[in-house]
């Protein structure tokens, strides 16, 4: 089904804008009149007529542009150390790289090449013998984060935007991580080659996910725990330097089962681990873990820049993903809040044994999302105000856990979300049993501004807690390939009230009288 989606949507999302009809024709008449008296004209007006016909029948791209990837010189003093007998692959290393290390890297490179080819991923093009011959080149040289990809330049004459690329892996990476690092680097190079305009964060995210599928380790610098801690920042950070994590301002109170976010200052990107988690969840949710979702999305996101400066920034991976989900009748606004709830059930055994998605259930025991508020509702505490300590990034999620063990069994918990203007908000609630297992899930319709959502949660004898999940749905798709921080980061507060049978009911119920009428 996903392949059918790719065929159906492969020509969509071009982002083009049709030229206004009529204007080029008027211009051509004026130009033709001027050309008529031009000396030496073989056919007066033919050039202007051809230009006007082209303008009438072609589309002009009016969307954002990004620069082509920077050209990188091939590493010096890195002769060929190992060459594949089966595939067009070579490994280079300096004088301090042992032959054994080079052949181990080649074995991992061959495995990554064969696996990605078998799964239908487009592989890097021939590199015009920049590394000695046309084989793909991996260099064992000092590399930030252990693994990376670089570009020689754009491939002229390619049907789609394509770059010539090579991969680098730090020779000092541990032996146990070598296969994951090589796979990560090769995948980054393949993705940079196929879509040089896409954000580096998406490339790192997808490469980390591919390394996880092929080697069991999420990239050369696995940071799934940091990505879980940074759930409030969103799945994919901007290529630009991210702002300070809002979670670092005030760690989760009583965070017994959630690590302190201040221990993970790099959680905004974490080597693409946040995006790798997103691919894990989407693939489990939509394709039962067969690996098709990311590949189809990247196929749709490829584009061609046929005019102007720089490269077309769209369709991006976010745009292609939205197209695929719309075609599957599972819009982004529905899927992301569902994944936000699912990722809560990861980490400690008390949570992960109730995880619905296999990939989330398999995360490390310390991969728990932070809980920013843990109020207790009972006879003596009927209303709680819980402001989020910072800003929620686009598609980021925040979690609060209400203890209702002291509340009357015939009571009802009512929740209001008051958010800042400019974005849409999602509010979800999960009733939890005494052992943490989910008893039922509710989701309020997405709403914008101060009235960001309302949910009444009826308690029963089995309900010991209510998990509240807030997701910032932004007001458009993020653009991580463009410079600058996201304009969609916003703050919010939750108002939680305990009411009996005589209290107001329904979506129109107003917050408690003492509640502020605006976002914090």
Architecture blueprint of SSEs:
Elements (H helix, E strand, L loop, with lengths): L1 H8 L6 E3 L4 H14 L9 H12 L1 E3 L3 E2 L13 E4 L5 E5 L5 H20 L17 E5 L6 E8 L8 E7 L8 H17 L5 H16 L8 H6 L43 H15 L4 H10 L9 E2 L4 H11 L4 H13 L4 H4 L5 H4 L21 E5 L9 E7 L8 E8 L4 E9 L5 E6 L3 E2 L4 E6 L6 E10 L17 E8 L21
Parallel strand pairs: 5-6, 6-8
Antiparallel strand pairs: 1-2, 3-9, 4-5, 7-8, 10-18, 11-17, 12-16, 12-18, 13-14, 13-15, 13-17
Give the end-to-end Cα distance, rounded to a whole number of Å.
45 Å
- Which overall shape is indicated by the principal axes computed on the Cα atoms? globular
Radius of gyration: 27 Å
Largest sheet: 5 strands, mixed
Helical stretch tally: 13
Mean pLDDT: 80
**Annotation, overall tally of beta strands:** 18
Give the uncertain stretches in residue-range form. 1-41, 240-270, 502-508, 513-520
* Helix proportion range: 25-40%
User: What share of residues are in beta strands?
Assistant: 15-25%
Q: Can you list the strand order of the major beta sheet?
A: 4-5-6-8-7
Indicate the structural class. alpha+beta
């Amino acid at each position: 089904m996903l392949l059918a989606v790719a065929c159906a949507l492969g020509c969509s999302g071009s982002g083009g804008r049709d030229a206004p009809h009529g204007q080029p024709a008027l211009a051509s008449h004026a130009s033709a009149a001027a050309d008529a008296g031009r000396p030496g004209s073989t056919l007066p007006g033919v050039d202007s007529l051809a230009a006007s016909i082209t303008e009438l029948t072609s589309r002009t791209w009016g969307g954002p542009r990004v620069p082509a990837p920077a050209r990188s010189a091939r590493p010096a003093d890195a002769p060929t150390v190992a060459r594949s007998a089966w595939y067009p692959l070579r490994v280079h290393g300096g004088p301090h790289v042992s032959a054994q290390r080079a052949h181990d890297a080649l074995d991992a490179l061959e495995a990554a090449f064969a696996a990605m080819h078998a799964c239908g991923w487009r592989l890097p093009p021939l590199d015009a013998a920049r590394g000695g011959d046309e084989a793909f080149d991996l260099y064992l040289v000092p590399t930030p984060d252990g693994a990376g990809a670089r570009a020689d330049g754009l491939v002229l004459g390619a049907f789609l935007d394509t770059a010539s690329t090579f991969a680098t892996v730090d020779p000092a990476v541990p032996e146990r991580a070598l296969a994951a690092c090589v796979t990560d680097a090769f995948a980054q190079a393949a993705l940079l080659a196929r879509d040089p305009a896409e954000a580096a964060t998406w490339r790192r995210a997808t490469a980390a996910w591919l390394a996880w599928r092929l080697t069991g380790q999420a990239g050369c610098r696995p940071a799934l725990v940091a990505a879980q801690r940074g759930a409030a920042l969103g799945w994919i950070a901007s290529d630009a330097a991210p702002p300070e994590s809002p979670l670092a301002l005030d760690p989760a109170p009583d965070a017994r089962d959630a690590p302190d976010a201040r221990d993970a200052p790099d959680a905004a990107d974490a080597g693409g681990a946040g995006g790798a988690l997103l691919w894990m969840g989407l693939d489990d949710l939509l394709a039962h873990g067969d690996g098709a979702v990311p590949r189809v999305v990247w196929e749709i996101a490829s584009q061609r820049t046929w005019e102007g400066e720089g490269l077309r920034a769209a369709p991006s991976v976010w745009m292609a993903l939205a197209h695929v989900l719309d075609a599957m009748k599972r819009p982004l606004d529905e899927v992301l809040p569902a994944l936000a709830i699912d990722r809560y059930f990861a980490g400690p055994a008390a949570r992960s044994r109730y995880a619905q998605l296999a990939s989330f259930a398999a995360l490390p025991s310390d991969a728990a999302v932070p809980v920013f508020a843990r109020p207790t509702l009972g006879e003596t505490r009927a209303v709680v105000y819980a402001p989020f300590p910072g800003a929620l990034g686009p598609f980021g999620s925040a979690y609060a856990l209400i203890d209702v063990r002291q509340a009357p069994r015939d009571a009802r918990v009512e929740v209001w979300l008051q958010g800042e203007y400019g974005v849409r908000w999602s509010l979800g609630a999960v009733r939890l049993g005494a052992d943490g297992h989910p008893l039922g899930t509710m989701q309020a319709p997405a709403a914008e501004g101060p009235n960001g959502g309302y949910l009444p949660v009826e308690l029963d004898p089995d309900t010991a807690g209510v998990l509240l999940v807030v997701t910032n749905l932004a007001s458009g798709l993020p653009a991580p390939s463009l410079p600058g921080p996201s304009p969609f980061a916003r703050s919010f507060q939750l108002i939680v009230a305990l009411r009996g049978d005589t209290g107001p009911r329904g979506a129109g119920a107003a917050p408690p009288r003492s509640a502020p009428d605006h976002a914090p």
